[in-house]
Amino acid sequence: MAEIVTLFIFVCILSICIIADFSILIALFLGLICFISYALYQKFSMKQIGQMIISGINEAKTIIIVFSLIGMLTALWRAGGTIPFIIYHTLSLIDSRFFVMFAFLLCSLISFLTGTAFGTVSTMGIICMITGKALGISPFYLGGAILSGVFFGDRCSPMSSSALLVSELTGTNIYTNIKNMIRTSVIPFIFTVAFYAITGYVSTSSIVSTDSVAIFAQNFNLNPWVILPALIIVILTICKYNIKVTIIWSIISGMFVCSYFQEMSIIEILRCLLVGYHTENPELATLINGGGLISMVKSMAIIAISSSYFGIFRKTKLLDNIKLWSNVIAQHSTNFAAVLIVSIITAALSCNQTLATMLTYEITNNIVSDSEQLAVYLENTVILVSALIPWSVAATFPILTVDAPISCIIYGVYLYSVPLWNLFISYTNIKAFASA
Fold this sequence. Notes:
- Helix 7 (about 115-135) runs parallel beside helix 22.
- By secondary structure, the chain is mainly alpha-helical.
- About 75% of the residues lie in helices and about 0% in strands.
- The chain folds into two domains: about 1-60 and about 300-405 and about 410-435, no CATH class; about 60-295, no CATH class.
- The model has no long low-confidence stretch (mean pLDDT about 85).
């Protein structure tokens, strides 16, 4: 009974904070107090609970370091002219009415090649957002398309850490899983492309101001060498270099570009790394201001608090009843429906895609006996659902990185069309689109 009450209180806290538009950090902090209270009720000491929290945060220390590096990286890409160069040479070639669709396709391509949602949003995602703003497109539309695109590859790239995690958990072949993933997402992908093409065509003007292009040439040295930091990221990521090493090399090259081509002093570069790029030109500021370590503080705080939940969940029996409920759901609906519902619960509680995936597997592996079937179920549910939870790291990091409103999740069509399509298939059993 205590487990049900605790989870109910947590859901109420999240709901109230979302409805009242309070910071998600407030909701997560109150949730932490809620879970600490449950652990105390279970006779754990404060020292033990503290160890649980530290253990959970330690699990995410690499992610926190990467986020801080990405904050510094994106500031240098702005200040060094990397992003302005790309926008300047591509803006005139684009019909803005179809740019939302292109943003989805470009992010899908890069995420498939690199296998990383966070790496893609920190590179192509930022470029698409700033380019889209220059075209006069709302960040709401751009944010949804970018969010959809970066998780396309995160789900089905052979280099994706989440795809590898699912493969390892289920003991299946990753390439067999990818084949099944492609089969089960063909219709949602086509629908998403068509949706973005149609809505973009209807809601966006085809007229592009030449001033939005010229302003970059007026304020930056757009020598082709300024694109070097972006090339380093793409090449080293494709070559599967360590993500921290990759970002550090891009930062080093970005500092050189800022110093040599934009004639910035070392003090200006260090300030940029910390607080981001800021220009006094108001027109340019709306397009390119941002980045810096400070811009990632909120994301890092969300990760730290949500990861602390993991330590508490792991040592207490808070989620044990969910396993019993999932069996009941499967008996009265379909196996996929049970996995989907469990994935929503675990993603909402864990606030972390990796933890949510592990919890969903642990809870549902007795429901789906076929390992390959379970693998594709996980890919079609928890991997994507995690990005639909407003307080999840999978959603907050990409959205905050591109400076989009949290409401853009609504426009992340691919993220929920895949689960909904497969839910429909699970009831109708259309074999041509089933995973096996």
